[in-house]
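Below is the record:
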Amino acid sequence: MNEASMFKIARWFGAPHARKFFLLLLLWGIASTPQLWTQTIRVDIAPDHVVNTFRPTETLGAGIDRIPRAATDKVFSEPMIKQLLSAGWQTVTYRQNTELYVEAWHWNPQGKWSGPGDQGYFVGNSTPTEFIRHSQGYPLTHQGFSQPDGTGYSRLTDGDLNTYWKSNPYLTKTFTGEDDSLHPQWVVVDLASPQQINAIRINWAAPYARRYLVQYWTGQDAIHEATKGAWVTFSGGNVTNGSGGPATLQLSRAPISARFIRIWMTESSNTCDTHGPADPRNCLGYAISEVFLGTTTADGSFHDVVRHTADRAQSNTICSSVDPWHEGSVVNEHGDQVGFDLFYTSGITRGLPAMIPVAMLYDNPENAVAEISYIEKRGYPISYVEMGEEPDGKHTLPEDYAALYLQWATALHRVDPKLKLGGPIFEGVNKDIEVWPDAQGRTSWMGRFFDYLRAHDRIGDLSFVSFEHYPLERCRLQWSDLYNEADLVRNILQVWRDDGLPQGVPLFITESNIAANDDESFVDIFAALWWTDYVGAFLQAGGNAVYYFHYIPLGQSPGCHGTSPGTFGMFTVNSDYEIQQPISQFFASQMINLEWVQPGSGEHRLFPSASDIRDGAGHVLVTSYAVLRPDGDWSVMLINKDQENAHPVHIVFSDADKAQKYFSGPVSMVTFGSEQYQWHSNIGSGRAEPDGPAKKLSAMGEADAVYTLPKASVTVIRGRLSGGGSEPKATRGN
């Protein structure tokens, strides 16, 4: 409509209505001009502004973990595998659960024991014979944790003087080559609340400590707030000539109020434990059969406040390490670490190299060598080897983990110098992991780990750094947590870099989901938005590989207060592990793997992308992630976190010369959101209705095109560009 036409219509309306008419025209003009009424997604496609490059076969993977033994045969079947693969995840990481349970892992049920009668240190058979379908964990005999992830308990407060905790012999000079004082071993008793303490009785087993300190913590929580307090040695707690046996120490004249008590051991007697001198490992480290804490009275009586019981209700103890000695008669028969032969031949790996773990915290290097030798003899491809499992969760000090890491690395590289080793596989954290300060006052776990490798001229043995990502706390989630995820994942990558991550060492998140325990958020539309935003933000921040967890569906948990059922995984299943329906994380997986990226090994280039869409509090409501795919398409993944409102957007690409480009010609638009999927909870279970699929549309791209993002949705817009200026060339792959 030109200006003359508008005036003619105005005269026809008459003067009294002209002002209202022109106001309507003004509003119509604003609404019909994309640059004025829509919000804008801006993509910087200058070739030298690429923020990351990746190949889906190496970068977008999924993880499997220990599962119920009854599930194995049903899950690792062709129909189930086919449905899992339809989500589009590529490479697989094999998660190790036994070390969380403080168990030794018999990755091969066949092998040799170091001692008589199926006891001692176990090494699996490296020669392929029988098809390995299942593998199990064996609880450690001499553990010192009262509350590991499994069902075990500590021998330090079990009330039985014939049992004992023993530290890991691989942390002694015989194996580290360093003085034992550089790897002090310790036990902490947590009395749950402050108690009056002025005496301790330690019933030492063998080997015992010649030099040790007994200390109390001045802060609130010695384990979870390691820098908010200090360990103070009792005036009577410095022992320099310990002789073993029952040792009662008067720690102070007057009782001191303390919750956490630590025994810090720096010199061993090197006498042999109950398993005898035939194996030198039996004579290294420290062993305690029972710990008593309390007060003494004038008549010499000892008044104990520790609860001694052979179950997890005992007074809580935490220890520095555990001797991997164990017995074949005690086995966890419920959990199945799927056998490597079944894992590799089932189809779940797509034939791609897989990330494989070796047990390290509670094992011996010979067993790790045998495991890798077996896999290579079978011809199964390995991408990376993760060393141990969650040492931070087991309160292992960084120098101890690093000492084990170097021993295992030396042994493994003798077998195959090309192996890419890494770790430390941290629990999901949102900030730096802090530990008790060392002699130099350093408290960063990761920083001290890097420093140890450098000091030993072995930083080259670290081929990657891996960690887990469980950023939120179930039952406390709010919709607004979606606004924070991009910042959370960017921040944790920067933390590891600030800790001294060596240049060029890639960062992998090898296990991840919304929280460490599931609830309804895992199965409603929240999960789809969280997953797509998380993966995009991680890659945009320079992350190198991310693994979905848990690949295998295992049924719903009761969730929060037994009323918000949820599940780790992409499907609901019945009691026979038969898939019932896909859920939100499945559709999110497809949006990432099949719509946003081009499946395969082709190189994708990720460019900076941002929106100006915010709520009244300044939260970014729409996040944007733009890749140039190997097929030449530009693909923009847009997450609308607004629960109530759709957002029309205008997408502008700017090249190095600041020339603007736009989608041109046929454009694919795929949306999955609250209009395609709704979760309905019932106590004990739940169901999605509607349950997808994603909505697919075709459009024609042009300079003034507007794309509407439905409320609470993820949308992928894909096509070619046109406009002035230069354009990066697509890099094609196989």
Q: What stands out?
A: The radius of gyration is 30 Å. Confidence is low (pLDDT under 50) at residues 1-37, 730-734.
